[in-house]
Structures are given as C-alpha cells and as structure tokens.
C-alpha cells in the first residue's frame, strides 16, 4: 500500500521546523527516562496521583445544547519532576462539555489533542458537540502542555523546540489524565473512556496503560511508537537534523551515557539491532572480510546494498532491517577497532538511530503495561498514512491481543478532515462493549 499524496503535499506546505534547539538537556532526558520506568508499570504509577487530587472549576458557560465547564489543576509532573515543565505549562487547563439532559448513565470521554490542536475549539466543534447530539455523551478536552494556554512564549506555533519536550508532554499527559479520571469518578460520571487523533490518540493509549480498571480506548490515526513518525514518516522532513547531528557529535553524553539508559528491547528496537550485530561481529572478527568485499568502502557501495535490499516483496521491511544492520556494524567496529580501516558511519545515520532509540524508550506501547481489557480498544488506522508508518514496527494487535483495528481508505489528512463521524462511531461502539461486559459490576 502506498502513501497518500495529500499527506505529502500538506506537509510540504508547512514550513516550520521541529526540534530547532536540539535534543534537550541531557539531565532532562535522564530524569524523564527514570520516570518512564515508573509510569511504564501500572502498579508503580498508580501511587503517583492521589485519588483526591484537587481539580478546580473557575467558569461555567451556559449553551443551548450543553454547559461548558472551564477548569484547571496543577500538573502532577511539577511535583514529581520539579522544574522539567516550562512555567507556562504547569497549570493544566481543560473544558468539560456536559449535555443538559443525560440519555442513559453519565458517560464521559476524555479527548487528548493531536499535533497543532491548540485550545479547544477543534475538538469541541468536530467531536464534543456532535457526541452530545448523537449519543448524549459528555466530553472532557484537556489542553496539552506546550499548546494553547500552556505554550511557552519562545515556541513558534506547534514546533516543539527540543526532542525532550515531546517526552515531557507525554509524561505530563499520562499523569494529568489520571487526575481527571479520578475526578470524574468522584463526581459520579460513568462510564469513562479516552480518545484522541494522531498524537492525541497515542498519548491517550499511553495514559490508559496506567489506569487500574477496564476502560474504553479509541486511538485514531496512531500506532505503536513515535520513532517511525520522526525517522521515516513525512514529519521526518521537518526535523532540524543539522542541529541534532551537531549536538550529537559535540557532546559524548548522548552516545556514552544516554544510550545505556534505553530499555525497550522488542524485536523492532534500536537496542536489539545493536545486540544482534555485536554478536554477529564477534563471529565475523576472525574472518578476513575487507570493507571492499562488503562494498562499504565507498558511499556507492552502501547505497547499492540498500537498493538491492529493497527489491522484491516487502522491500521496505528488508531495507529497514539492513539499514539497522549497516549502521550498527559501522558503529560497533568504530567502537571496537578505533583507527582501523572501518569508517565511522555517517553522522546523520547515527543521529537517526539515536532518535529511534529515545523515541522507542518513551513512546513505544510495548514499554508500558498492557491495558486491563484490550477488547475495549478500537483503533482507527488510515491505510495510506504517510505520517504514521507501520512498516518495520510491531503491530498493535501483537502487543495488545484482543484489541480491534479498523482501517480506512486514504491517508492521515483526508481521514482527519472527512472521517470524524467514523471516529465517533468507534467511540460509541467501545462504550457499548464496555456496558455489555461491566454494567452489572
């Protein structure tokens, strides 16, 4: 299946660069990786947010079809990892959109924001108000850190300045979602669930892994990890690779210390690729293989190998695997045989590998607990999505056995523009499934 031309064109029209200041402070990366080890474990994470965590409503707007409650609370991340959030992002703001009359029960769905979704009007207009009309379901819209009211003054639109900002955003949203779920329970709303589109869907997925009860989850246009989004998807073209490469080359802390903190070891992981090739190198070290034989002595040799690997069925999968092999071979021989005939791999490839490693560490679904009831998960995917590549990464069905994946024709942008009704239907279906299984418990 190809990729959507509309996705590619839309990305080309957006000229903003991502991560213009680089990777972020090494100490921030270290602290967020340490927190990931806790939030990746449901039993440990549930101790981080008290059930009575304070939430405040400061304004209520009376509309013809609903009431809009504007509220806020202090992000738990500020207490747990002080100083890691920008000052503007510490106060978490939300809108709670409630029907004037409930049809049955008091269901609420929390919507997390996708990339570029500032403030509340998009989610309120495209999802929340139609959901009141169609199903009598309330919606709670949480503002992402770094967005809208919570955007740092120096940040341009949605362009996160550091790679670490994405991980800080994710950690904050996981903990803030727990605050809101506890609050909604205290206020006797039920059943509760979570959704989001694109990045919002992925953040909702991470948040649900830590909720200690069965809960409907409807991630739309997201998948198992953000690593492919920023290394092979169309968004990779927006990444400021020049700055990332410069920092990676100048500061040995990334290669010498931070790589050692990466724990995710699935079959599609950066670390697995390195460990496999280290054992392969030990075997090869006794053989007389020159760089000329492998075709690695010149740039043409590497590109030719890539070209041959891509031929035939599933060429992308073979190409992805060979890219990992070649980059890891070069890295290992550089480290083991300094000064030998092996040339250091290109800085760009090394930076790509590091990006994959840190992204998998903080965003790969397999690095977090499996939700208590995956049958309540309905994921919507676009078949030709150029933003969320699925090649070379584990499938969600493998990591969360029992979840349902629904595929739409077209790409990421067309699905967002024209398929919101299908997103809402998946939400209703997941809630019906929950009620069938748990209404008497």
Commentary on this structure:
With 441 residues, this protein is an alpha/beta fold. The strands form two sheets. Strands 1-2-3-5-4-6-7 form a seven-stranded mixed sheet, sandwiched between helices. A two-stranded parallel ribbon has the order 8-9. Strand 8, helix 16 and strand 9 form a beta-alpha-beta unit. Helix 2 runs parallel beside helix 6 and helix 11 packs across helix 14. It is globular and about 60 Å long. The two termini are 43 Å apart. About 16% of the residues have low confidence.
Write a concise keyword list for the protein shown above.
single chain, 441 residues, alpha/beta
Q: Give helix and strand order, one letter per element, not per position.
A: HHHEEHEEHEHEHEHHHHHHHHEHEHH
Number of strands: 9
Mean pLDDT: 81
Order of adjacent strands in the largest pleated sheet: 1-2-3-5-4-6-7
Number of helices: 18
Q: Kindly, what is the distance between the CA atoms of the first and last residues, rounded to a whole number of angstroms?
A: 43 Å
Compact summary:
The protein has 441 residues and is an alpha/beta fold. The protein is 46% helix and 12% strand. The chain contains 18 helices and 9 strands.
Task: Describe the secondary structure blueprint for this structure.
Layout: H1 5-13, H2 26-39, H3 42-45, E1 56-62, E2 66-74, H4 76-80, E3 91-99, E4 108-112, H5 121-135, E5 138-142, H6 163-186, E6 192-197, H7 199-208, E7 217-220, H8 227-231, H9 241-250, H10 253-258, H11 270-284, H12 291-294, H13 299-309, H14 315-336, H15 347-363, E8 378-382, H16 396-399, E9 404-408, H17 412-418, H18 420-438
Parallel strand pairs: 4-5, 4-6, 6-7, 8-9
Antiparallel strand pairs: 1-2, 2-3, 3-5
Helix pairs in contact: 2-6, 5-18, 6-7, 9-15, 11-14, 13-14
């Amino acid at each position: 299946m190809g990729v959507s031309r509309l996705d590619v064109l839309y990305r080309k029209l957006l000229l903003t660069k991502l991560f213009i200041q680089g990777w972020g402070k090494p100490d921030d990366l270290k602290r967020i990786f340490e927190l990931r080890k806790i939030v990746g474990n449901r039993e440990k994470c549930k101790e981080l947010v008290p059930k009575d965590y304070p939430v405040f409503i400061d304004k209520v707007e009376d509309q013809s079809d609903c009431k809009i409650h504007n509220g806020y609370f202090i992000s738990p991340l500020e207490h747990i990892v002080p100083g890691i959030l920008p000052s503007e992002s510490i106060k978490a703001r939300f809108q709670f959109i409630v029907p004037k009359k409930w049809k049955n029960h008091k269901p609420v769905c929390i919507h997390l924001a996708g990339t570029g979704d500032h403030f509340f009007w998009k989610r309120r207009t495209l999802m929340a108000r139609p959901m009141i009309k169609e199903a009598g379901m309330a919606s709670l819209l949480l503002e992402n850190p770094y967005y809208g009211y919570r955007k740092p003054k120096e940040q341009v639109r949605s362009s996160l300045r550091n790679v670490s900002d994405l991980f800080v955003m994710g950690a904050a949203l996981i903990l803030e979602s727990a605050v809101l779920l506890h609050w909604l329970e205290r206020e006797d709303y039920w059943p509760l669930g979570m959704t989001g589109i694109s990045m919002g869907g992925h953040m909702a997925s991470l948040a649900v892994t830590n909720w200690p009860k069965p809960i409907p989850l409807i991630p739309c246009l997201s998948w198992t990890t953000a690593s492919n989004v920023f290394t092979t998807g169309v968004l990779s073209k927006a990444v400021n690779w020049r700055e990332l490469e410069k920092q990676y080359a100048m500061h040995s802390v990334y290669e010498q210390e931070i790589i050692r903190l990466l724990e995710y070891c699935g079959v599609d992981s950066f670390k697995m690729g390195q460990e496999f090739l280290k054992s392969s190198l030990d075997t090869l070290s006794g053989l007389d293989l020159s760089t000329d034989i492998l075709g690695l002595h010149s740039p043409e040799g590497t590109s030719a190998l890539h070209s041959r690997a891509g031929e035939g069925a599933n060429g992308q999968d073979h190409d992805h695997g060979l890219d990992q092999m070649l980059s890891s071979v070069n890295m290992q021989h550089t480290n083991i045989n300094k000064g030998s005939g092996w040339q250091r791999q290109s800085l760009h490839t090394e930076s790509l590998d590091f990006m994959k490693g840190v992204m998998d560490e903080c965003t790969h679904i397999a690095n977090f607990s499996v939700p208590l009831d995956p049958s309540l998960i309905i994921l919507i995917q676009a078949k030709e999505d150029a933003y969320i590549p699925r090649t070379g990464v584990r499938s969600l069905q493998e990591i969360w056995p029992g979840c349902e994946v629904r595929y739409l024709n077209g790409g990421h942008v067309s699905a967002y523009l024209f398929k919101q009704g299908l997103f809402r239907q998946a939400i209703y279906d997941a809630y019906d499934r929950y009620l069938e299984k748990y209404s008497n418990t």
